[in-house]
Design brief:
This protein has a domain at 98-239: Jelly Rolls. 10% of the residues lie in helices and 43% in strands. The chain is built from one helix and 14 strands, in the order H-E-E-E-E-E-E-E-E-E-E-E-E-E-E. The chain has one helix spanning 2-24, and strands at 28-29, 32-34, 42-43, 98-104, 108-111, 117-126, 130-143, 153-163, 166-170, 174-178, 182-191, 193-194, 207-219, 224-239. A hairpin with a 2-residue loop joins strand 1 and strand 2. The protein is rod-shaped, with a radius of gyration of 57 Å. The model is unreliable at 1-13 and 15-20 (pLDDT under 50).
Length: 240
């Protein structure tokens, strides 16, 4: 009986000791306490995402990686609206001067009163708009038929720049009045004006033209007028 009681007491005492030990070690894992907040020598539980809070991690930026290959070219986008018109650029320098000349010894005879006649021409090719200076000269000889009086008669001469049959530009009209038979030297020159009766210098558009010396006679219309030894020249003054 005594032995049984001693055994019972020993059994009860051993269980109580074990229970007390388990209670005191319930927040330890391998000897470390657990804590919801970061503390030294304690275990920190993971958050709801199964990760440690960022506040307890030491983050460092690694080196920049190598540049990846270019992607494939995308499709062309739709054309955008037209932009506003820009300001005009500065005026460029004037182009180089250029000219030409011709001489015609043969004469042109006009009987009585004749309309515009020409025998002396030059081609003019302008690659850009420009003004032209032209000059011409001719020896005018008036012959009166035998037995007829030498009535006054006017000889007229003008330089014309034409395109087809259209007079694009011209000089003023040179006029010489003679009361009797004889010879006289006529000249005309100047910066070409617009059309046949312009009042100021004209900037001729780029293109191909013909420069010609035109003559005619007016007045008594007796006898014949002869224009000979004609010369014609021009100079391109430069781009406008």
């Amino acid at each position: 009986m005594v032995v049984a009681c001693v055994a019972l007491l020993l059994a009860l005492g051993s269980s109580a000791f074990a229970a007390g030990t388990m209670v005191s070690n319930s927040d330890r894992v391998d000897g470390f306490h657990a804590s919801a907040k970061p503390k030294a020598n304690t275990l920190l539980p993971l958050n709801g995402s199964g990760k440690f809070p960022a506040s307890v991690l030491t983050l460092r930026r690694g080196p920049i990686g190598a540049t990846g290959p270019h992607g494939a070219k995308g499709a062309q986008g739709a054309q955008g609206p037209q932009g506003a018109k820009g300001d005009p650029g500065i005026e460029g320098p004037r182009g180089p001067s250029f000219g030409d000349a011709t001489y015609n010894e043969l004469g042109v005879q006009i009987l009585g009163c004749g309309s515009d006649t020409t025998s002396t021409t030059l081609p003019v090719n302008l690659t850009s708009p420009a003004r032209l200076f032209a000059s011409a000269g001719a020896q005018y000889n008036r012959a009166v038929l035998e037995g007829l009086p030498a009535a006054p008669q006017d000889a007229l001469m003008q330089i014309e720049l034409v395109k087809g049959d259209t007079v694009v530009a011209s000089t003023s009209l040179a006029r010489d009045s003679t009361a009797a038979a004889g010879e006289t030297l006529m000249t005309v020159s100047g910066v070409l004006r617009q059309g046949s009766e312009g009042t100021s210098g004209f900037t001729v558009p780029a293109g191909s033209y013909t420069l010609r010396l035109a003559y005619r006679t007016e007045g008594a219309c007796i006898g014949a007028g002869d224009f000979g030894d004609t010369s014609l020249s021009y100079i391109v003054l430069g781009t406008a």
